[in-house]
Amino acid sequence: MSGVAVIGGGPAGLAAAEVMAQAGAQVTVYDAKPTVARKFLMAGKSGLNLTKAEDVGTLLPHYAEAAHWLGPAIKAWDAAAISDWAQGLGQEVFTGTTGRVFPKAMKASPLLRAWLQRLDDLGVEMRTRHRWTGWDGDALSISGPSSAPVPITADAVVLACGGASWARLGSDGAWADWIGVGTAPFGAANAAVAVNWSDHMARHMGHPIKGVAWRAGSYRSRGEAVASRRGLEGGGVYSVSRGVREGADLFLDLLPDMNVDDVATRLDRPRGKASFSNHLRKVLKLSPLKIALAQEWGRPWPDEALRVARRLKKLRVAQHGVRPMDEAISTAGGVPAVALDDRLMLRSRPGVFCAGEMLDWEAPTGGYLLTACLATGRWAGQGVMDYLRI
Q: Do both 33 and 98 map to the same domain?
């Protein structure tokens, strides 16, 4: 046997390598960058959100239309299994108030070091600065740090090449040109929304927008966002960015805990000589940033309190779509379910399996992204073992 090749040293590829090496396979991981798991490390700088402490029935709907075919992998490697795995690597975890699971170290590097040590102990070989460039018949065509592409044969292959965002960290989506199957077009997921702010918003840049709700098409969120010079960023907006990407208007509810009639009743209170902004502050307790957003997108204001209330509850954001894909946290598109069997093997290339973000699925931030990457990596690795035993 010539062993198993894994293309891509991110969490999906490393998860596949681990399960295969534990089963006794000879595994080589190829990664184009000088070190592996660069996006994993970057994502963990502000707190590595490993998974979401939810049962599978609650977890799966967050993968939308991909839930039915990702389901077997996630059921086999759910949030509890991921927590146990991390603790088995010596990384104690805790669950936050929102159900998000983090290592107590609050960063990715200690966990990655322990994981790479385990893989090394299992005999997994890491070949960095080795880029997959397509096929040479049934062999992989791989270029080394100072060599032209050469054919590499393997008994089976796991492709874990990532999506098409954060290209500087290794996920550039170039593989779609040579994988040999029809792929769904890439699109920005969990993306910032572009806004051209007026000058009066300058003093609010970098400030969090709290206690609001967002809606774009069928997607809704109660999360926070941040007003930045590029537009709107943060989990609240990321959760509805798919709707914006698909062409829906983005709406902001500045008072999600009040109904329209209650807002109108408060607005009907005597205003006296107070300015409109001061009236909003006094009767609705709106923060300076919320008042600024209301003025940014709500003017000219109607005379009737009920119409003003409706506008504050459904403020149309003057946005210009999602920010460029390479800035997005993740991507939609990639290898579609129809190209794969139920073990994530390419129907057109027996022995070649796919995992991670290169598959055509998307999910919000909050632990769901890494959960699916780890789960599909292990599922593909187990699929390889089953395939090689035939």
A: yes
- Residue count (the chain): 390
Q: Are residues 176 and 244 in the same domain?
A: no
Residue 119, domain extent: 4-187+330-388
Is the same domain home to 144 and 252?
no
pLDDT digits (tens, 9 = 90+) for 142-190: 999 987 899 999 999 999 999 999 999 999 999 999 999 999 999 999 9
- Amino acid 172 reads D
Kindly give, in sequence order, each residue whose CB lies less than 8 Å from that of residue 178, ignoring residues fewer than 6 positions away.
133, 134, 135
> What is the domain-level CATH number for residue 182?
3.50.50.60
Which residue numbers in the chain have pLDDT < 50? none
What does the block give as tokens for 56? 């599978």
Q: Would you say the pTM of this structure is higher than 0.85?
A: yes
201 and 176 in one domain?
no
Query: What is the number of domains present in the chain?
Result: 2
- pLDDT at residue 390 in the model: 56
Alpha helices in 148-251 (DSSP H): 235-238, 241-245
Distance CA 93, CA 101 (A): 7
**Torsion region of 344: left, alpha or beta (phi above 0 gives left; psi -120 to 50 gives alpha):** left
First-residue to last-residue Cα distance in the chain: 14
Give the Cα separation of 346 and 116 in Å (integer).
28
Which tokens in the block code for residue 218?
A: 């069928």
Q: Residue 43's pLDDT is what?
A: 85
Read off the DSSP letter of residue 186.
E
